[in-house]
Design brief:
379 residues; 17 helices
Length: 379
């Protein structure tokens, strides 16, 4: 049962409630708030899921290289800014979600609670501990590329605000930001091939977030280096096997994410031509069912529930691809129709029922509903 997701779709703002949303227990380390205001927007509802996990330490899955017994510590001790939401990258994009809500709706009824949560995390002391951890021996590939790409997206969100408190948080993150950018620039020329998976290691999605960050913060050198790699990897790609997607644990489409990336680095005319060769199967009749949404049979399974995410990420990728085509392009209607189909299925699945999905799906939904990638790339 996904009653929370159904309420999201219907926007029945006054009638939805559930574990962790109405103030009931969310488990060890949860932050359910009995005095929380009734959410007024769909993004408020997504923010509740992030608020209820960004400082929830357990359950926790850490990817942690240990050099000795001194490295046997709790997630909060290892990375005190980002230790909740089950894993480091989900914590990072949970914080991004909250920052995004402040940027897009500063008058949100949850604004005060969001500010308190972010202020707890974004202290210079917390970031200094994380920086030391990140630069430790054997951690050069830590959360690369997915987690560090989301971290840069978080920095971009803070960068774009003129709010004084948010500006302080942005400065607090700057030391870790610098180390991550340096690591990416060291890694890029060593990467011989793109990573075409449908999960965390995929380079197309990460490069999109990194490129948006680089362009948005004026880091021309990083933008140029990413663009060079993207074109070297993908300019000559043709006939992407979309019919083979999704794999059973995907939350990103290799084909659609690549196309969504290439719109960022090609002119409209170049992208129009490239897309014809890369995805010739896009119909011209405006139909939306040429890609079937992924099906999740057990939302409590942390791997199988990835397919709820693939529906959300497909929706924003399809919309992004359409946004880069000429207005008269006959493929636009089919791209947008399929995006809408995936959007409806994906948002319905954003539920507080199982922590396997609730700790991360709201971030994907917020990226979609606030048009983050399109807004950034289209500016």
């Amino acid at each position: 049962m996904r009653f929370f997701g159904a309420c999201l779709v219907a926007l029945a703002l006054a009638s939805c409630s559930g574990a962790g949303v109405d103030g009931s227990d969310t488990g060890e380390g949860g932050t359910a708030n009995e005095n929380r205001a009734e959410p007024q927007t769909i993004e408020d509802r997504f923010a509740i899921l992030a608020l209820d996990c960004v400082h929830r330490e357990y359950p926790n899955k850490i990817s942690h290289v240990m050099q000795g017994s001194q490295d046997v510590r709790t997630p909060n001790e290892l990375t005190p800014a980002f230790y909740g939401c089950y894993d480091w990258h989900s914590s990072v994009h949970g914080h991004w979600l909250l920052s995004r809500v402040l940027n897009t709706n500063p008058d949100s009824v949850l604004a005060a609670e969001i500010r308190a949560a972010l202020a707890q995390s974004f202290t210079p002391e917390n970031i200094a501990i994380k920086l030391e951890y990140y630069q430790g021996e054997g951690r050069a590939s830590f959360e690369r590329p997915y987690g560090i790409a989301w971290f840069l997206q978080l920095v971009l969100e803070l960068e774009e605000s003129d709010d004084p408190q948010i500006a302080e948080w942005r400065e607090a993150l700057r030391p870790l930001e610098g180390a991550i950018v340096d690591q990416i620039r060291d890694w890029l020329p060593k990467l011989s091939y793109p990573i075409r998976l449908g999960t965390h290691n995929q380079t197309a999605f990460a490069f999109g977030l990194m490129l948006d960050y680089a362009n948005g913060t004026g880091n021309d050198a990083l933008a140029a280096e990413i663009t060079e790699r993207v074109l070297a990897f993908h300019r000559d790609d043709v006939n992407c096997p979309l019919a083979y997607e999704p794999s059973g644990e995907d939350f990103l489409s290799p084909c659609l994410m690549e196309a969504d990336l290439m719109r960022r680095v090609l002119s409209q005319a170049e992208f129009d031509s490239w897309l014809s060769e890369f995805l010739p199967q896009i119909p011209l009749d405006g139909s939306g069912d040429w890609i079937e949404p992924g099906i999740v049979l057990d939302a409590s399974d942390g791997k199988l529930v990835h397919l709820d995410g693939v529906n959300l990420s497909r929706a924003w990728a399809l919309e992004g691809i359409a946004s880069a085509l000429p207005q008269e392009d006959q493929r636009k209607d089919a791209l947008l129709a399929s995006s809408q189909l995936h959007r409806e299925v994906g948002i319905e699945a954003v539920s507080d029922e199982h922590y396997s999905g609730s700790h991360w799906l709201a971030s994907f939904a917020t990226y979609l509903t606030t048009k983050r990638g399109i807004a950034r790339a289209g500016e």
